[in-house]
Amino acid sequence: MTTFGIWITPQLVFNGLVTGLVYGLLAMGIVLVYRSTKVINFAVGNMGLIGSTTFALMIINYGFPFWVAFALAILIGMGVGGLVELTVVRRLFKAPRVILVVATVGVAQLAQAVQRSIPEIDAGGRRYPVAVGSQWEGVLDGIGVSQNQLAVGVAAPFVLLALGVVLTTTRRGHLALDRTPLRGSPPTTVWSVIGGTGVAVVALFMLAFSDGATATSAGLRVSGPQLSIIVVVPALAMALGVLLNRTTFGKAVTASADNPDLSRLSGVNPKVVSTFVWVIAGLLSTLSIILSSGGSSVAGLETLGPLTLGRAMVAAVLARMVSFPRAIVAGAAIGVAEAVLQFNYFNDPGLIHFIIFVGVAVAVYFQSRGDAEEGVFAFVPKVRPVPDQLRNVWWVCHLTRMVIAFGLVVAVVVPFIVTRPSRHLLYASILCFAICAASLTVITGWSGQLSLSQMTFAGLGALFGAALNRGLEMDVWFVDFEAQGIPFLVSILAAAVIVAGVAAVIGLGALRVRGLMLAVTTFVFAIAAQQYIYRRPIFTDGNSTAVPFRRGSLFGLDLGSQRRYYYVCLVALVLVVAVLARLRSSGIGRSTIAVRDNPNTASAYTVSPIRTKLVAFALAGGIAALGGGLLAGLVQSVPYAERFFLVGNSLQLVGIVVIGGIGSVLGPVLGAVWVIGLPAFFEGSELVALFGSSIGLLIIVMYFPGGFVQIGYSARGALFDWYLARHELPEPANPTMTAPAALRGASDGSGTAMILGAQDVRVRFGGNLAVAGVTLDVGRGEIVGLIGTNGAGKSTFMNAIGGYVPSTGGVELRGRDISRLSAPARARRGLGRTFQAATLFPELSVRETVQVALEARGRTPFLSTAAFLPPSRSIERARRTEANELIDFLGLGRYADSFISDLSTGTRRIVELAGLLALEAHLLCLDEPTAGIAQREAEAFGPLLVSINRELGSSMLIIEHDMPLIMRMSDRVYCLEAGTVIAEGQPEEVRFDPKVVASYLGTDQRSIARSDARLT
Question: CA-to-CA distance for 273 and 514, rounded, in angstroms?
Fold first, then answer.
């Protein structure tokens, strides 16, 4: 049968369904771990390699009975899962989830290494063992079974799966697994109906192809391995669904994932639950590899884990990371699509990978809407500031420069000491990998986006460079386009610019993808590029295995010499490191990290998260492309399926930056020397290779999360302490507390009496009306208090006028409508904002935080900063001077170089004020500014706010639960209840309003007396 020009047969559909069931089985392992720990397990495919390889070894080499070997293999797989949990997951149990994701990458690499160390299977032409003879083809002659009957038998498990989807859904559209609505999507019952309908269509589709007669030799054929998959996978999916949705233990799994602390109070041990879940994940992984390998050659087992992981990850995403039945149905759909497309487009087998990437990108985009999960790399190396007593000691001030200079001298001299060209090739490869890894410093270390496709951008850079180098001939919209070739190095630079643009386009689609889902998207993109994009005619030029990329010359010097090319790579690395160091110490680097740590506060400081992330994507893509082009020039070709630009190389880059020190500009260099260079210096040693990659990555993540750079910083701090202990140095003089020149009033001479006017503001979350038509105004120089019970809608209203949540109604600032502006745009118009938690930017220092706020006075230019031009230097000096003045004015001088995460809540509140002063805002929206600080500090905080209000002329809208404080400070007060204003007016009027007393203040006479005493 032909549909839309695509040939479809019952056998194609059946084969695809069976293959897809294996994808669904592996997807269940991903869903299981995510449901219980909120971790995306990138090791779920490779964990099964050890047990499945041992299974074949026991039967083929040692003659074990099938079922004995099978039971032992399953136990091994479960043991691997349990061992991973006890040694890695439990060690990182309280770490950010993104760190655990990185750890699973190391586990995946380690599992492959262990699988390679297992004795070689003596196949002798034999195939992988199966439970049912692989020669049983299911040709139905002689047994009287029609295709109709077989089709019904095959479709039955899928119908039962659809029924399982319906059974796991309550009437209110909530999933039984976690009782939480799937926000941003239709009710779950709708998805259940869609899933059930889709399965029914598949069943009817198969029946339509049969003619009701007994099959002939051309009929539907079912092999033994396929029969095993049909029986085992649906049964296992249903069993897991019942276990997790219908049993007490399943509820314990959900409880431990949603709230580990609360589950402990209920008698549930989250660590025991985690161990059980990872044991089951090991079982599913091992079983999936055994089932998928049945009847095939024993060779190539090592590639099964990574190849099936991509499809399984897509199926898990389509299942929204929560539903086992949906994972099975999604896996089956992927299998059918793969079988049909590969049959019809056998000359372009990679097409299915590209289609899968598009599908997962769309699914993740919509799934991530409203997803509150954020993945922040909080294990970047922290630099201890130089003690004030040592700031005038020469060697202390230049210690870092001396270490870098020493390393650079070694890099320059080594090629003259070691003269073998093969070694020069190795050294150059280390430098190229360091450049590629530097892209992860930007996108992951600074921007906080876990990308698993940076080596893909490197491959695109190499391919674009090769195409530009040889010249392009192609048809663009029916117009012949031809361009002459350009020199080697010029083509690499041009390719880097092109790929930077490509990365920015991909970044546009990733802006709505939050948390760990970006890792899934980039992982699938890397697979699609490896299998499909790399092989486009514009890149291949008719070459089937590799594209030539000759080096040419530079200023008349032939680059054919390995030593000369090494120095070209060294110069490129030095320039990349210098530019990144410059950007990191500028407003660009500070703003990027601010967006990573706290996008809401960054927006309040006028920094646009969208613009910042796009710049990070483009910069990272361009750097990776530069490294990829140099790497291809190293071997003078761009290979398709080996060496450099594969999915595994992207995972290797993650190991490089984590081992070296993610977020540090020198981390990629140290990591590349360790991961790429160490195994090459100890050729033949598998143990060294393990420590250079998987084991090294796991040790660093578990025990030295800051990497080698953090170890160096610790040694540097110990050296400072040793010097201070041996020398008595005078304490620096305290700065004079004078009003800084950077402190400028917010008044612009406008005669507008009203600063803020909010009319009928409404905010709705699903069916809940959080703010129900609030009208409020703040006059020039006025302090307005906003009170009410918890949950009254105060913070939500403040978020609405700040542009942080969608709302309806009108919002005017100084007479101008800002209702449709983004949060950063509103901040640029003069709306300052603080938040309850006062987290600010944990990985930035106090000075850097104030400098981020000072970006409101003028953005740091990117090009002039990267090029070290004088204007950028003067801007940076001015920013530092202004920040120091504000810090000293508020008495924060001793904390200037301290990280925000190391400060007390009260000190962070003062830093918030410094940021507001830097903004020169006309309206300051303060959300519980005294929350979390001592009473004495709170009483001193009020007069400070009043003095700022008077000196700067800034108006204030303050949410506060300290009634004496807010009543004493405010000119007017509004009281909210259930999202509506129930009282407004002078503090005394509102305080004694019956509605306010009944709703919020209460009628306890002793409390009123105490409030009266504090007010007077």
Answer: 27
The residue behind tokens 């100084």 is 814
Q: CA 659 to CA 43: how far, in whole Å?
A: 19
- φ, ψ dihedrals at 202, nearest 5°: -60, -45
- Among 1012, 859, 832, 1005, residue whose Cα is nearest residue 927: 832
Please indicate, yes or no, whether residues 295 and 187 belong to a single structural domain of this protein: yes
Q: Which CATH number characterizes residue 593's domain?
A: 1.10.3470
Are the C-beta atoms of residues 649 and 658 closer than 8 Å to each other? no
Which residue bears the tokens 């930007």?
442
CB count in 10 Å sphere of residue 873: 14
What b/e readout covers 901-934, taking b as 16+ CB neighbours within 10 angstroms?
A: eebeebbbbbbbbbbbbbbbbbbbbbbbbbbbbe
Which of 344, 361, 393 is the last residue before a domain boundary? Answer: 344
In a domain, 719, yes or no: no
Q: Are residues 966 and 901 in the same domain?
A: no
736 lies in some domain: no
Q: C-alpha angle 18/24/29, rounded to 5°? A: 140
Residues facing residue 6 across a β-bridge: 3
pLDDT in tens, 267-284: 677 788 888 889 999 998
**Considering the chain, what percentage of its residues have pLDDT values greater than 90?**
23
Please, which contacts does 185-188 make with residues 24 or more away whose CB atoms are closer than 8 Å?
Answer: 185/320, 185/366, 185/367
For 628, phi then psi, to 5°, come to: -65, -40
Residues 903 and 846: beta-carbon distance below 8 Å:
yes
Q: Which residues is 812 bridged to in the sheet?
A: 757, 817
Pair 624, 454: CB distance under 8 Å: yes
> Which alpha helices (H) appear in 295-420, and where do they start and end?
301-318, 324-344, 351-367, 394-397, 399-417
Q: Do 153 and 122 fall into the same domain? A: yes
How does pLDDT run across 328-362, given as a tens digit for each residue?
Answer: 888 888 888 888 887 776 667 778 888 888 888 87
* 665-686 per-position pLDDT tens digit: 999 999 999 989 888 777 766 6
Which of 887, 920, 953 corresponds to the end of one domain? 920
Using CA atoms, how far apart are residues 326 and 30, in angstroms rounded to an integer? Answer: 13
Residue 973, SS3 per DSSP? strand
- Give the Cα separation of 353 and 534 in Å (integer): 12
Q: How confident is the model at residue 988 (pLDDT cuts 50, 70, 90)?
A: confident
* 671 closest CA partner among 374, 381, 258, 347: 381
Domain enclosing residue 264, as ranges = 2-344
- For residues 160, 161, 167, 171, the Cα torsion angle rounded to the nearest 10 degrees is -120
Here the tokens at position 126 are 């034999």
Domain identity same for 911 and 972? no
The candidate with the shortest Cα–Cα distance to 778, out of 752, 750, 751, 809, is 752
- Is 157 a member of any domain? yes
Q: Nearest Cα to 13, choosing from 149, 143, 154, 145? A: 154
Instruction: Provide DSSP, 478-505.
Output: TEEEEE----HHHHHHHHHHHHHHHHHH
Torsion angles phi and psi, residue 777, rounded to 5? -140, 155
Question: pTM for the full model?
Answer: 0.84
Task: Kindly state whether residues 67 and 212 are assigned to the same domain.
Answer: yes
| Distance in angstroms (rounded) separating the CA atoms of residues 589 and 151 | 60
Report the candidate in 612, 619, 645, 668 with the shortest Cα–Cα distance to residue 496: 619
Amino acid letter, residue 133: G
Tell me if 418 is assigned to some domain: no
Q: How many CB atoms within 10 Å of residue 812? A: 18
DSSP 639-688: ESSSTTSSHHHHHHHHHHHHHH-TT-SSHHHHHHIIIIIHHHHTTT-HHH
Considering the domain architecture, whether residues 535 and 664 belong to the same structural domain is answered as yes
Domain count, the chain: 4
571, containing H or E segment: helix 562-584
